[in-house]
Amino acid sequence: MTKVLTPILFFLAAIGLFFTYLRPAYDVLLAFQAQEDRLDVTLEESGKLLEVHDSLLRKYNSISSENLKRLTQILPNDIDVVRLIVDIDALTTKHRLSIRSFEVPYLESEVASASSKKKQAVQEVDEGPVGNAILTIECEGEYADFKALLLDIEKSLSLMDLVSLHIEVSDMTRPNAVRGTVYTLGLQTYWLK
User: Is the overall model pTM greater than 0.90, yes or no?
Assistant: First the structure.
């Protein structure tokens, strides 16, 4: 009887050992192997990304300093409202237009309080690396000069979009009437955040 009972006991002990120790350990081993496979794939992808990064860095380093300066003028690292106003003023003066008013966006400093954030007039895109602001300019002059101004703004290295335009033609029959046509431009400018 012991000859029959001993193998059955060993068989039952092996089954118990399999379900209590070997099966959970084998499941853990499979989970570790799956994680190792995922990490290998991630390591390969990071190697590819490093190659792309190195390639882009080589391309960036091959750009001349003059072209880098031009790229910075197209999309600066921050908005320089004074430079922008000076550029616009130079263009309007060049085309014999007189500036009547500027509406400069309020730019918050890094130490601005939460209440000043509510007053912020800079319209920033929440997502993405590029910020934008709308500068409103009111100028007066002849249509041909204004048309030439728009062409120069279009050709300018500073990236600007005309987002609004209001034209007010003067009525010379009224007393105190404005002599020329008044143009109100909304120019949207961009910078890297």
Answer: no
